[in-house]
Amino acid sequence: MDTLQLKLFISVSQTLNFTRTATEFFMTQPTVSNYIKSLENSIGVRLLNRDSHSVSLTPEGQEFVGYASQLLMIQTEAENRLRNISEGRRGYIRIAMLSSAAELFSACLDEFSRAQPNVQVDVDIKEGTEMMRDISQCAYDIYFANRYMMPENDSIDYIVTGTHHLHLFVHRDIADSIDINDWSTLAGHKFVSVPETDFALSGQLKNICMSRGVVPDIINYYNRADTLFLAVNSNIGLTILPPGLTYFYNFPNVVSMPIGGDDAVINSVVAWHKSKTNPDAHKFLQLRALARVRQPS
């Protein structure tokens, strides 16, 4: 099993057409077919059904697509890391970030890259449930997250970097009809929400509405912030989210309204595992950009 075999298999799994894949890779169709057959022989199962009219994935092929993608991703990450080491960038930090933290993270990355140009910083953007899972699995060096995501134990330390009020996001065509101080004006409007597996934020949406006399009619749950904004931008529904997301996402039809009250407060944090001793991560946590926004925890 080699890299080209995996790339060709992933391509065919998407195109379901050997000729199209051959064109993408500047090969002949028989060459692509031979590579796929060699891959199937090496792992001992048939990955594709093919006849003169169609191509489809076998059950084994459907299962293998995800593994093939992961293998290629790991190889790419390894090659990139080794290249950075050979070019003098021996330091390495892995950071997980909520998209609502993009503005602060951008300021931190700018300061850090100037001070530590030989440290490689990898960042992955996470949604709420992904972030909580990764924190529990000690998957990263640093997390730009929200305080409610912190586990109830002493394995994590963090600094509070902001206290914000959640915003109500609505389509501009209905914005004038909504009074944020009179929630009866929301009657009849549909809501979209983060998944219920993000217990705290989805629960906060419901509690905010119900404490103001509104039972939210949630018509759909989306597991990505950009999809929630797309739904609002398309006038599918309203939603309640952290205001920092507007730095990362800019949709022309979306209007935000700050929600007053202590029940609408959300705290952003930068967190790390006490057991991890990455010296470059420690340097990152000493940045002036973090010191300027640090609040009492």
Automatic annotation (TrEMBL):
The keyword Transcription applies. It comes from the Bacteria. GO terms for cellular component: protein-DNA complex. SUPFAM superfamilies: Periplasmic binding protein-like II (SSF53850), Winged helix' DNA-binding domain (SSF46785). Keywords: DNA-binding, Transcription, Transcription regulation. Signal peptide: none annotated. The keyword Transcription regulation applies. InterPro entries: LysR_HTH_N (IPR000847), LysR_subst-bd (IPR005119), WH-like_DNA-bd_sf (IPR036388), WH_DNA-bd_sf (IPR036390). Residues 1-58 form the HTH lysR-type domain. GO terms for molecular function: DNA binding; DNA-binding transcription factor activity. PANTHER family: LYSR FAMILY TRANSCRIPTIONAL REGULATOR, TRANSCRIPTIONAL DUAL REGULATOR HCAR-RELATED. Belongs to the LysR transcriptional regulatory family. This is DNA-binding transcriptional regulator, LysR family.
